[in-house]
Design goal:
Strand content: under 5%
Structural class: mainly alpha
Number of strands: 0
CATH topology of the largest domain: Lysozyme
Distance between the termini: 61 Å
Mean pLDDT: 89
Length: 190
């Protein structure tokens, strides 16, 4: 009987430690994911997500994917700021809004988020599907329009083929980030 009690005690201690380790691991994983998928520039993201009717998780996912939340980021192609906007795209958008244009303004987080979210909204209005809008954000409307003309689109408006590997990978990374933001912060993009 004594041996049975000792064995049972050891089993219960091991089970308790296993549960505790599992809880600590889950908590650590959550903290790690929140560090990898942060909510930065929240006031600006919330403001422009509401103004332009873009789900906030999409805004965060694009910023994270584009610049890792670095407002000084500049890509090899010349895209600038948090949302990695090309100066020519920025010039076009400011012409549409009637605002003054200077490329250096894209280093300002508010300017980058405002015009980046505005552009995402425009792309979604044009294509009606977020995946297609993300592809256009990455490689340009001209290329996406060409793929659509070539019939590389299904009946829902989703591209069936993205010929550029970088753009294909980009769309996947944005979608993965959206899923992480939805899971971590209990939201759902539409």
């Amino acid at each position: 009987m004594n041996k049975f009690i000792k064995t049972l005690t050891v089993i219960l201690v091991i089970a308790g430690l296993s549960v505790l380790c599992g809880l600590l691991a889950a908590r650590f994983a959550d903290k790690l994911d929140r560090a990898r998928y942060p909510l930065k520039y929240t006031d600006l993201v919330e403001k422009y997500a509401e103004v332009y009717k873009v789900p906030r998780d999409i805004c965060y996912a694009v910023i994270r994917t584009e610049s890792g939340f670095d407002p000084t980021a500049v890509s090899a192609a010349g895209a600038v700021g948090l949302m990695q906007m090309m100066p020519a795209t920025f010039a076009d958008l400011t012409a549409r809004t009637g605002d003054n244009y200077e490329t250096g303004m894209l280093y300002d987080p508010e300017t980058s988020i405002r015009y980046g979210v505005y552009y995402l909204s425009m792309l979604y209005d044009r294509y009606g599907v977020w995946d297609t809008a993300f592809a256009a954000y990455n490689c340009g409307m001209g290329r996406v329009d060409g793929w659509i003309e070539e019939g590389k689109i299904d009946e829902t408006g989703r591209l069936t083929e993205i010929p550029i590997a970088e753009t294909r990978a980009y769309v996947g990374r944005v979608k993965e980030a959206i899923g992480k933001y939805e899971k971590l912060y209990n939201t759902e993009s539409e």
